[in-house]
Structures are given as structure tokens and as C-alpha cells.
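Sequence in, structure out.
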Amino acid sequence: MSAATSVRCSGLRLFEAIALRVKDGDFVRGEIVIRRGKGAKDRVTVLPERLRGALAAQLEQVKSLHENDLALGAGRVVLPQAWTRKFPNAAAAWQWVFPAARLYMERVTGIRRRHHLHPTAVQRAMTAPAGLSKRASCHTLRHAFATHLLEAGYDIRTVQELLGHRDVSTTMIYTHVLNRGGLGVQSPADFLAAPGELRRRGAGFRRTGEM
């Protein structure tokens, strides 16, 4: 599984994952900051301990790639809004965590830049054969993130904040997991005896005349 796909285990949407910048990860606090997610809002989610090694290796590759781009006269990543004027030397910290494989020429300025991965690159990695019996997409990881948090006992408001849902009713769709497990709701059908047991019981009733 690619690094970009793995980071989606933090509950990020696909575009949020591929648009991560180097500065958005905090290894000390174990956090990932999502900038201008859905609804143009920022939020903070968790950085899994088991992903830190892979992410650190990815950042080393990004650093090497950035240095090579600078040597070619490129490496100046696009900054949002007026940040280019305010922080002209912020290119390194603002590099994409998951850069594209090729440089491109910006039409207006003529500057050679490198964009982040295209969504289809991650989608192909996710849909590659992996011995799965069920269909899975990139968004499946986000669903699994929410589902397992609720199964672990985290409250619905915490899950809502981590997912970046505006309305808690959207997060409530994951509460179906509360119907499973040792403390979950059991179907009345499971209280019934097996067919063979019912037949034996029926035969006994007929013999004794009880109905």
C-alpha cells in the first residue's frame, strides 16, 4: 500500500491526503493538520504511531527530490493566496508530502513546478488486487477509521471532529457498529431454537398434547 493510501488511515479524505504539505505533520505531538478541508475548514487528526517510520522515509525522499528540482531551476511550489508575497522563502516547508512524478510549466509565469499526486494514482493503488473478497475504495479507509474509533468506545463528537463533519448527523451513520459485539443488540431471531430443535420440541408437544 502506498504512503498516501496509508495516511488515509487517519480519516482523511482523498484530496486532503494528497494535498498534505511537509509542514502539516507533527511527529512530536502525533498530529496531522488538514488545511482547508471540505468546507474550507482546518482541523487536526491523529498521526498513527505505526505510520511514522514510513512517513519519515517519504519526507526524506521529498527533501531529496526538492533539492534536485532546485538544481534544475524548479522547486518553487505553489503557495495559497498571498503567501508567495508574504513568505517568499517558504517553498521548502510548503512542499507536497506526496509530489507528482513529473514537473510542469506554469502557463502564466513560465515557472517549472511540481504538483501533488493526482487522485487517480492513489485510487489505482487502492484498487489493485490485494486478495480482498469485497470491493474497496479509498473512502473505505475513512469509513473504517470512524467505525473502529466507535468500536473502541470513543464518543461521537470526537469522531465528528476528527472526520471534519459539519453536522454530527453525518457521523451518526457509523453508529451501526454499536449493534455488533458483546454489548451490542442481538436479533430476536437469534433467541430461537435451531430447526432441528424446533422439530424435536414439536414432536414432544404432540405426544403430550400440549400446544
